[in-house]
Automatic annotation (TrEMBL), chain A:
This is ABC-type xenobiotic transporter. It comes from Streptomyces muensis. It is found in: Cell membrane. Its main location: membrane. One of its GO terms (biological process) is doxorubicin transport. GO terms for molecular function: ABC-type xenobiotic transporter activity; ATP binding; ATP hydrolysis activity.
Automatic annotation (TrEMBL), chain B:
Residues 24-258 form the ABC transmembrane type-2 domain. Keywords: Antibiotic resistance, Cell membrane, Membrane, Transmembrane, Transmembrane helix, Transport. GO terms for biological process: response to antibiotic. InterPro entries: ABC2_TM, ABC2_TM_bact-type, ABC_2_transport, Nod_factor_ABC_transporter. It comes from Streptomyces muensis. This is Transport permease protein. Coiled coil: none annotated. The lineage of its organism: Bacteria, Bacillati, Actinomycetota, Actinomycetes, Kitasatosporales.
Length: 316, 260
């Protein structure tokens, strides 16, 4: 059972701070990541994503719960876990005072890679860092630094790779480069656990998404399942501001969701769970109610919609 | 053990490459004691009862030890910087010896200290300091100095891992400047009021300084001093043994635990 999961955690708990002012960062995190898949831990700031990664990579000890990573027990055999993982995060960094090449050679040596110099050269080439190889890493741009960080996690191919917000703050070109590298890795069979605040990133890379909210996994599923949780995004634009309320009443009735108003654009929007709702029916109903329409649209939901819906539901 | 040696070697290499890539701080820390030797030696030397040249001979071992005590600050600064920048966390996720990271830092510091002693002693020779004892004793003096530095670096590494704060390390620089003032590094302690003399003579810097003066043959062991100063070599070895026995395990344990 455990061998089919690269990461399996049960009831992980972590508290920080003094006893009277504790922050309960994780409140029983259950997570199962199948081997060879990409799991996206998605959640707002402070949800506990980074704490989860720090626990699973042996950087923190859980206060309660247990986990196995690459088949090794996190608490009983952290050394075996460390042999099996690669970590790239905003907190776990390469050495800015060393050059890119020196960093990779150092990590290759520490991983007991044969021919550390050759391995460093290969990785620099693969991540487009050959020209900057002999400059101190502190002079690298954000994107280069992140690529070097990722390369440093790959000196020896890890069984499980942890990426903590791998593209936060990067420009689109750098971000695509990181995404490509992650796709290549998963094609080779590496399991990836990535945290992200970007729904697009989870949509692009992840086979499964675990929505983390206030220290627990609130919801799991594929990106497609997440989107099907709520039907479609409905928006109508009316000619006259006075009929916006009337339009909203129709939308409310059709979607069962409370519509939102954009007065400047004279638009009324709602997210529907009813998968049978079609655009012609929407237009007919509005017409029958005497709402003069300028525009109407019915779009499949983005993960942002899902995300907002799910976190709002939990907050309510 | 071979894991520790291999990983420690890799970490030593890392520290030395860092210094080579970024030599500014090193140059600053090496020129500081030379500046102080010239400044104290000629300015204070002119006002003391001791003749200037004799004072400078007296001062060279004192400054060597005072500089070695700065290992607290440099050790703390580097460990705090590595923690703050996330290097420690990345190293903690690697399948490597837990003791290798602090040990590599301490040994690298020792190499730098040994190298920095050479230009300082050359300036010392230029201002009148001499090795007045045997070569063997002089080698013993250098060995003792490095052992003391090794001990203070472990204190620093522990504090750096504990505070994770580079600024705190910078502020501690002021405190480590005061430590040698409360010892016999710059002045003889026999003129101090009784209680202050006791404090100064139980300062580890005093024992090591006296041992160096004795082994280099620059000044005799003072009469009527507290035990570590009256028996300077044994006193220095005891101080270093205690400091290393306390702070090296604390630092290694602290590194291994992270912030859990």
């Amino acid at each position: 059972m455990t061998s089919t999961y690269a990461v399996l955690s049960e009831g992980l708990e972590k508290r920080f701070g003094p006893r009277n002012a504790e922050v309960h960062a994780l409140r029983g995190l259950d997570l199962a990541v199948a081997q060879g898949t990409v799991c996206g831990l998605l959640g707002p700031n402070g949800a506990g994503k980074t704490t989860a990664v720090r626990l699973l990579t042996t950087l923190l000890r859980p206060d309660a719960g247990s986990a196995r990573v690459a088949g090794h027990d996190l608490l009983r055999d952290p050394a075996a876990v460390r042999r099996a993982i690669g970590v790239t995060g905003q907190y776990a960094s390469v050495d800015g005072d060393l050059t890119g090449r020196e960093n990779l050679r150092l990590f290759a040596r520490l991983h007991r890679v044969r021919g550390p110099a050759e391995r460093a050269g290969e990785l620099l080439e693969r991540f487009g860092l050959t020209d900057a190889a002999d400059r101190p890493a502190s002079t690298y741009s954000g994107g280069m630094r992140r690529r070097l960080d990722l390369a440093a996690s790959l000196v020896r191919r890890p069984e499980v790779l942890f990426l903590d917000e791998p593209t936060t703050g990067l420009d689109p070109a750098s971000r695509n480069r990181i995404w490509d590298a992650v796709r290549e890795l998963t094609a080779d069979g590496t399991t990836v656990l990535l945290t992200t605040q970007y729904l697009e990133e989870a949509d692009q890379l992840a086979d499964d998404i675990a929505l983390v909210d206030r220290g627990r996994v609130a919801h799991t599923g594929s990106p497609a399942q997440f989107k099907s949780l709520i039907g479609a995004h409905v928006e109508v634009v009316v000619t006259d501001p006075d009929v916006m309320v009337k339009a909203a009443a129709v939308l409310d009735q059709l979607t069962g969701a409370e519509p939102s108003f954009d007065h400047e654009r004279r638009a009324v929007a709602a997210v529907t769970r009813d998968a049978t709702l079609t655009l012609p029916r929407l237009v007919r109903e509005l017409d029958a109610a005497g709402v003069p329409l300028l525009d109407a649209s019915l779009q499949p939901p983005t993960l942002d919609d899902v995300f907002l819906r799910l976190t709002e539901e939990r907050a309510a | 053990m071979s894991t520790l040696a291999y990983d420690g070697g890799a970490m030593l290499g890392r520290q030395l490459r860092r210094i080579r890539n970024n030599p500014g701080l090193l140059i600053l820390t090496q020129t500081m004691p030379i500046t102080m030797l010239l400044f104290f030696g000629y300015v204070f030397g002119s006002a003391l009862a001791m003749p200037g040249e004799q004072y400078r001979s007296f001062l060279v071992p004192g400054l060597l030890v005072a500089t070695a005590a700065n290992g607290i600050m440099t050790g703390m600064f580097q460990a705090a910087q590595d923690t703050h920048r996330g290097v420690m966390d990345r190293l903690r996720t690697l399948p490597m010896s837990r003791a290798a990271v602090p040990l590599g830092q301490a040994v690298a510091d020792l190499v730098v200290t040994a190298a920095g002693t050479v230009p300082f002693l050359l300036v010392g020779l230029a201002v009148g300091w001499r090795i007045e004892g045997s070569t063997l004793e002089a080698a013993g003096a250098v060995g003792l100095l490095l052992l003391f530095r090794f001990a203070t670096t472990w204190i620093g590494i522990f504090l750096g891992l504990l505070t994770r704060n580079e600024e705190a390390a910078g502020q501690l620089g002021g405190a480590t400047f005061v430590l040698p003032l409360l010892s016999n590094a710059y002045i003889p302690t026999d003129g101090l009021p009784g209680w202050l003399r006791t404090v100064a003579e139980w300062n580890p810097i005093s024992a090591v300084t006296t041992a160096l003066r004795d082994l280099f043959g620059n000044a005799p062991v003072p009469d009527g001093a507290a035990w570590p100063v009256a028996h300077p070599v044994a006193g220095s070895l005891a101080w270093c043994a205690v400091l290393i026995a306390v702070f090296a395990p604390l630092a290694v344990r602290r590194y291994g635990r992270g912030e859990r």
